[in-house]
Amino acid sequence: MSLKILIFVCGEGLGHTGRCLAAGRELSRAGHEVTCGAYGYSSQFLAEHGMNVREVPAEIRLVGEKGSLNLGKSIKESIKLGQVPGLFNVQKLVDEEKPDVILSDSYYLGTIAALRRKIPVALMVNQSNMEIFFQENYLFQGLGVIAKEFYNGIFKRVDRTIIPDYPQPNTICDLNLNFEDDSTSKVEYTGPLPARNYGDVIAQNLPRPHVLSLIGGFGYRAPIFRRIIEAASMDSNINYTLLSGPGLDKEELPPLPDNAELLPFIPDQFPYLKSCDLAIAPGGHTTMMEALAYGVPMLSFPDRGHSEQQNNAEGLEAKGCGKQMDYKASASEILESVREAVNGKYRDKTEQMKKLAGEINGPEKLRKILEDLAYQRL
To answer: Residue 113's CB: how many other CB atoms inside 10 A?
Structure first.
């Protein structure tokens, strides 16, 4: 039986977008009618990849300075967005679409709209202790208490809470999860949700061993980017593909060694991921899940002051799948960590994680969860 499914996407970073694309593709392949509610570059990205998209208001706006999350400015900017009109617009979309079930990826306006209309809803998150953003700044600790009450109230009311991570004991984002006892029965782990299945991807023809750097060369990450180039120049036996982002002036960078290629943009990173021996990236959860689903270890440089990314990186290292790196790491320290990784330090564990991801089949598991919720209602 074909279902109407509405997916709401948090547009703060493409991690949410990538895993929602995986969910949308799987649901569409199964014959369901899928609509995505998204905003900003997220809506553009989904539309370019063939999804039916409806524009929704931004729910939160994250503001950072010099590599750190600025909580005060983030709160002010989010307040400016105006949540009451936003909820009205989202509710209108739900009423127009009349979905059988809703998947909301960290987009709480969509979750509230579903609860108000008594539509089955699954909330997808990789962090349930968001109050720590406030607790780390004494000026906003009172808001942290309010945030905790709000999120815990939501977790109690939704039909399912989806964690797009490996089940215990292999959960990478474990340090970011904290559910009250009466919410735990609704929590389900789907495993990774890569936008492209490993078996469907043709590997890029790259010289081995090969390192894929996703750090980028802008702003506060520029010094790390330069030190990675320096590390590449110190060992010509290890090859690198460096993604810089469009618009970076190559003249501002140190000379590239012959074993490193600089690319401003790759429309599809999965062929490169399938062919590399190591990824270097910040601390985003989805990037980690994609790498591990492909059996690739990671050196993670989490953003400073971003506790969620730092916890992800700590979990990555604790599970033996890579290493948490510091922004102050020298080129020699980076090279030492790269050598360890390409020489197989994490290979056994990441191969296990790749195999486990294939066995779980995250997109299929998520589809079945949503189908069960909808069919129970019909």
So the answer is: 27
